[in-house]
Every structure is written in C-alpha cells, then in structure tokens.
Amino acid sequence: MSAACALAEAGFRVQLVEQRGYLGGRASSYLHPGVGEVIDNCQHVLFGCCTNLVGFYRRLGVANRIYWTSEMTMIEPGGRRSALGPFSLGPFTLPAPLHSALSFLNAKAFTLADKLALARAMRAMMKPATLIDTRESLGAWLRRHKQTEGALNRFWKLVIASALNAEIDAISVPYAAKVIRELFLNSAQAGSMGMCTVPLSELYASVPRFLAECCGSVLLNAHVEGAAWNEDSAQWLICTRTGELVSDYVILALPFEAMQKLLPHLPAEEGAEKLARQIERHQHWPICSVHLWFDREVTELEHAVLLDREIHWMYNQSKLQTGRGGHYIELVVSATRFFAALERKEAIALALRELAEFFPRVKEAKLEKVALVKEMHATFGVPPGIDSARPAAHSPWPNLLLAGDWVQTGWPSTMESAARSGHLAAEALGLSAENPLRCIEPDLKPRGLMRFVR
Ligand SMILES: Cc1cc2nc3c(=O)[nH]c(=O)nc-3n(C[C@H](O)[C@H](O)[C@H](O)COP(=O)(O)OP(=O)(O)OC[C@H]3O[C@@H](n4cnc5c(N)ncnc54)[C@H](O)[C@@H]3O)c2cc1C
User: Which amino acids bring their CB within 6 angstroms of ligand 1?
Assistant: First the structure.
C-alpha cells in the first residue's frame, strides 16, 4: 500500500492486487462473527521513530487518527504501579537520553540493582559496536552484561522481547540496540507510542480512494498465482485466480512464506535460488490477543504493561478507540509459543485469572463476551545473522521489485518495516523507469546529548 500510494502520487498508473476481500494484511480489522464486533487482528502500536509509516498515513490523510502518548504504566501482580515517561515542568524538560530518567529512578517495579544493571546495559547499547552483528544473541549479551533477574524478566524478556516478538536467545544484538536507542534514548518524540483510534481497516479505507484520485485502482479477491516476463513487449503477464493482468513493472509485497509459494511460478532466473535459500532461513513467531467485554469499567488506564505473568499488555479499547461503547479490554501476549498452544478455554481462563491480579474489579465484573485471536505467523524473527537472509528491493527478475516487512530495511517485523520497504521499492522502480523519486522519509535526528553519540 505504501509503494502503491507513493508511485500513484508520482504519476504511475498503479493497480494494487490483493488476495483477500479487504486491505491491511497482518495489520487489519474485521467483523468477528463470535462477538459481533469489528476488532483488530491484534493491537498494533507504532512509535514516533516510525517515520515512513507516519509518512504513509500523512499521504493518505489519516495521520490524525493516531493517538500519541509518552506515558507507560507498569503494573505488578497485586496492583502496584510504576509510571514511566519523560519529565516536563512547563517548558522545562530533561535532555535525551535522560528525558525519562526521573521516572525510571522512581519506578518501584525495579530494585536499585535492577536499575543499575539496566543503566549499564543501555549505556553499552549506545556504543556503535552494538549495531554490528557479531552473531551473539541478546540473551548471551545480557548474561555477559550481568543483568539481574528483575531487569531480565521485567524489561528485556517483556518489553524488548515483545517489541521484537521473539525470545531473547533468538534476537540479534543490533536489533535490540536499535529498539533501545529509538524507543528509550534518542529522543522523547522517537519513543512516543501511537495507537489507532479507529479499527485498522478504517485507515486503509482511504487507499482505494487515494489510488482512484491518481488514476489507480485496487483489485480485491485476486490471488496471484504466477507471473511470466514477455521479452518482446518488455512486460509482465500476471496470472491471478480471477484473470490475467499486464504490467510494465511489478512489486511483490508478500510475506516470506507467500513469496516462497510463488517462486516456482516465476521465470527461471539466476539469483532465484539464492532468494529461495534466503527465504528458507526465516521463521515466524506467534502473537495472541484476548478481547474481553465486561459489564463495567475494570480500569481507568488506557494501556499498561503487565509484569511477571503470561499476559503482557493491556489496551483499554473503549478508551483508545473513539466511538466504541461498552467496556472492551484487549490483552496481548507476544512471543510465547506456550500461550499460543493453549486450548481456547484454557487461554481465556488463564488471561482472566491473571487480569484480576492486576485489576481486582475484574472479579466483580461480568464478562459479556470474549474473542481469542491467535496469529501463528505474526512476525518474522531477527536472530543473529538474519540480515544476510533479507533481500534488497531489486530482485533477480527485470522490472520486478520486492517489498514486505521481511526485506532489507534494517527494521524488525513491523508496520514501519513494511511501509519503509514499500518506499524503497517505489524508489527502486522510479530509478528503473528513469523517473527518480524521493519516497523514503528521513529518520528522526537524535536530540539532546544523544546528538554527540556516534
Ligand atoms: C498479531 C500481530 C501483532 C502485531 N503487532 C504489531 C505492532 O504492534 N506494531 C507493528 O509495527 N507491527 C506489528 N505486527 C507486524 C505487522 O502487522 C507486520 O509487520 C506488517 O503488517 C507487515 O506488512 P506487509 O505488508 O509486509 O505484509 P502483510 O501485512 O502480510 O501483507 C501482505 C499482503 O499480501 C497478500 N497476499 C499474500 N499472498 C498473495 C498472493 N499470492 N496474491 C495476492 N495477495 C497476496 C496478503 O493477503 C496480505 O494482505 C503485528 C502482526 C501481527 C500479526
């Protein structure tokens, strides 16, 4: 979608082809038949540093549908809270990377030993060396940097493992360092968290309109089954389940396993085998979400990090999404194959039991309806060495570009990586068509003292 809109705006006649009956892919919403409500397949958060995603939303005219906040509440079982966020007193703020230092020092969720260990690790992650993939896992790196149990369980295995959606032993250090720098060190703006105030698919409802205004179109329910290159006309013939299409250029913006299925139906070309080997190295991680409707408010908080339990994040959707009635709470469980393997009944019972430990009002509230969404192929992992398995936008085929969150963007499996990959593919296509474009949005510059960290 990001590639299509950027190219359409630049004057290309674009047709966006999607196998499903709606847009959004892994970040979409739908009417859940069990509860009769439109729900997101999972809460999707973005951050201030997601400049290409925000640029895409701006292009679509939907950037005002994102609610931004810099406050994060960590809750321990029993209900004790620690509020984290940048300090400000009128116009006075603290310079990055110290902008949230006061709330961190005050946080009851961490002991003094935890705080010292975390500060040491964050300082080490500021060094450029942590941005080089030495094939060491984050788990090994953290053991080497003597992280305490509290720091490991309440920060690294929760916040960072969730952001990268994998266990710490399956995460490469440069990706963890990138998250730490962007979310906690570079600036308060880069780390501010964005949440959509409408169901995700409402954001993308503007895509067909935007493309139509630029002489483009969207073709839904059209599964692409193969493509053939016509040397004479220098065009692609795209075979979909509903018919054939002809195009000068193609961008394949598929998840890696869909790309793997399509590969045998593309022309034989030097380099295709290498791509197949790269794809084989990717692995998926699951994310689960439990959607609960109560008869009354169980918490006044908009969102929270839940410590020491299977459930990780709470989003109060009745507060976050404007126009929602009722008392709708969404719980997110990242990177745990254990929770994903539970039966529906067991998973919901566990989630409810744990939620009551954080919010006692849950015990008195009546659960009106509930939905469990398990996304087994939610994101790809970023283990040490993964960069060599992420292809660039240029593919082995003429006039065919690759996009999707898993291609070479430097970002983990996120909407920002997807949007960025689309902009990279659009720029590559523009170059081939001798119509150079500038689509990539610049990164936010580090602020305060972080400007001097090289
Ligand atoms: C449960 C869950 C929670 C997540 N949480 C977050 C989060 O909080 N923040 C964040 O930034 N990211 C999050 N992500 C990751 C984010 O959703 C993805 O990184 C992003 O959506 C990937 O976009 P994409 O365009 O690369 O791929 P996709 O979204 O997978 O889009 C690919 C599209 O291609 C279509 N397609 C596939 N094969 C064919 C074919 N043969 N013909 C035609 N069409 C085809 C698919 O239907 C799909 O619409 C989450 C993902 C999940 C599943």
Answer: 17-20, 25-27, 41-42, 44-46, 223-224, 253-255, 258, 262, 287, 375, 378-379, 404-405, 413-418
